[in-house]
Each structure stands twice: as C-alpha cells, then as structure tokens.
Amino acid sequence: MAAIDIRRILGDRLRQELDRQGLSPERAASEAGLPKEVVEGYLRGERRLDFGELTPLCEALGQDLLWLASPAWKPSKVHFRGHYGRALREEVLSAERALSMVTEFIQPPSRPAVGRVDTRSRERAHLLMAVWERVRPLREKHPRVEDLYQGHRLPALPRKMALDGFLVSIGQWALVFVNRDRSPSRIEFTLLHEFAHYAFHPAPSPDDRIEIGGGDFYSDPVPEHALQEWVANKFAQLYLIPMDIVNDWAKKRLETACAEAARHVLENGISAEVAANALFDAQWLKTGRKPHYNDLRDRIGREIQTLQARFVFVDHERLTADGRTHDDRIVRFLEAQADSLEHRLAEHQDVFSEARWEEVKEGLFGER
C-alpha cells in the first residue's frame, strides 16, 4: 500500500475518533502534548508518519496505534454524549480494546426478534405503546433481567466507575458494563436500559452528538435528539412496571394510585423514581395534561414512609429509607457473569503476551 494511502487512511480514522469523542484538534493536541499543526497535518493525511508523534496522539484518544492502522480495524460503536474527561474516555475505550482482543474466544450474543421501535411519530402515547409492544413478549419469555441477558447470551460485567453503565460492541459481539456501587434497583434499571440500546439502536453517527436535558424526557412530542435515550428509559420502566399496571393506575384517583405505586415499590424492590415515571405516564394518559413529576415522586415517597411506619411488610429491615431493596441478587448475577467469562478467557491465556493479558483483564474486569 502506498505511503500516501496509509496517511489518508490514518487521517480518516483519527478524525472519526475525534468526532465520536467530541474532541477538537486543539484539545487532542493538548492532551497528546503536540502542536495543533501536527495533529491537523495527520487529519488531512498530509503529514509524514512519525511514531514519536502518533503514539502519544493515539494514547490521548485511548487507541492502540497498531489496531488503528490494521486492515481489520472497524469504526467504534462506543458513542460519547457530551465531553468526557480523558480518564473516563480511556476507561470506556480500554473495555472496547479488550473486547476486540477476545472475540474469537466468546460466543456472540443474539438480538431479540422483536423489531426496532418505530419513531417516525414522536407523539408520547404512540411511542409508549410501541415500546410496550416490544417489551411484552420479551418480559413474558424472560421475567427477570438475568433471564433476559442469559437468554440472549449478552454478557454483563460489574466494575467501579463514574458512569451508571455503558454498552460496547464490535461487529456481532457486545458487552454491557454496569457500576457495581449503585443500588440493586439502579443496577437493574441500567441493565434494562443498556439492553434496549443493544436491541434497538445502531451506533449513532458523530453528528448525533447531543446534550439531553431532564425536561426532554417529559415533553410531548418527544424531542428527536432524545429519542434513543427516551426509548431505552421506557423499555426499562415498562419491564419493571408493565403497561397493564400503568393502565390500572390511570383509572384510579391520584391518591389511590400513589398508594398502589408505593406498595409496588416495596413489594418489587424498584425505585420510587421508576414508579413516579410510570405514574406520570398514567396521569398523562388519563387527563391528557402534563402532571408534575416532582409532586408525584414526593407523594409516592410519603406513602412509602407511611407503609413502612405501619410495618406492613415483613421484610421491612431489607428496605432502605426510599424503598430500595438490599437484595443483592442482581449483584451476585453480575459477579457470576464476570467469574464465568474470566475463567473462559483464562483457558486461552497462553495466546496473549503478558502485557496483552493484563490489558484484557483491566479492560474487561477492572477493579471489582
């Protein structure tokens, strides 16, 4: 391959990395300790290749230079929303690099055969029913989130990190990572949220890089830039609180619906926030008017405290002040997933150099 072709190919791949990570040439140059003109020369495919410059530039992007120049290189499907610091970007990208090294040793997951959500109409009620139509058959077949992941062979791994969770995928392989320090109810919601991204959403293009505000989730119609996150959130919510329950709440007085939502929180170990969002949908469907989310959440919180004060639930000691369960079932599932994958990969450890093996372990398992 001609040198000029290599320069052009590397320039194109470097620009894709800057675009998806939300980095300007100036910031990339600063993090790499290089003049801006050097980075711009590589991006244009004009600068003579110099490993002394390319190595720190790739390190600043969390990329391996040999992989970036490899004929087997594929564009990443990890997409950064907003401007993450270098340490956080490197953590996510290290997981992606590790996955790229082990694909031949793990079975690819299978996507659910439920079809993608039709988002051509962004009207809230239409989207809610479209998501439910896809949740319902999955929930009937896989009642628990563990069943959902195991049924589709999608590995989920715990780690200590700043994010709630993220999905990485390379070709037909994918992995989900979740923050093990979050509450079990939050972990369960995150697993469902990331599964929805795996099931329904191709990697967004760099032009889709956006910031989503809290109000975007309570608008009608749903803003186009927030559709993917809205769908993923509603997928998780409807898995935890099915539509038939939402419809039942919609038929009742608000005080009764809040009391039933509080009871549902305590009986099922979900968060008050998820119940408040479900009740938000119920009230909107009932009245056609936008209710106040904070008011609903506070009402449910007061009902939870009332029920706990009356010692209605035998397992009262297993509940936190806001109704979250101390049950570590979901954490044990994640630990078992990590142990199983680590054992499977250890059988092929001799294929890797010592440095590469450490990179695989750090990228996939991190600090557990």
Which spans have pLDDT < 50 for at least 5 consecutive residues?
A: 204-210, 314-326
Helix content: 55-70%
**SSE ordering:** HHHHHHHHEEEHHHHHHHH
Largest sheet: 3 strands, mixed
Distance between the termini: 44 Å
Relative strand content: under 5%
Give the overall shape, derived from the CA principal axes. globular
Structural class of the helices, strands and pairings? mainly alpha
Q: Given the structure, what is the number of helices?
A: 16
Strand order of the largest sheet: 1-3-2
Describe, in plain words, how this protein is organized in 3D:
This protein is mostly helical and 368 residues long. Among the domains are: 3-73, lambda repressor-like DNA-binding domains (434 Repressor (Amino-terminal Domain), Orthogonal Bundle); 243-318, no CATH class. The protein contains 16 helices and three strands. It has a three-stranded mixed sheet with strand order 1-3-2, with helices on both faces. A hairpin with a 2-residue loop joins β2 and β3 (173-179). α7 (124-141) packs across α10 (227-240). The protein is globular and about 70 Å long. The two termini are 44 Å apart.
What is the gist of this entry?
The protein has 368 residues and is mainly α. The protein contains 16 helices and 3 strands.
Set out the fold topology.
Elements: H1 3-21, H2 25-32, H3 36-43, H4 51-60, H5 65-68, H6 86-102, H7 124-141, H8 145-151, E1 156-159, E2 165-170, E3 173-179, H9 184-200, H10 227-240, H11 243-250, H12 254-268, H13 272-287, H14 293-309, H15 329-346, H16 354-365
Parallel strand pairs: 1-3
Antiparallel strand pairs: 2-3
Helix pairs in contact: 2-3, 2-4, 6-16, 7-10, 9-10, 11-13, 12-13, 12-14, 13-14
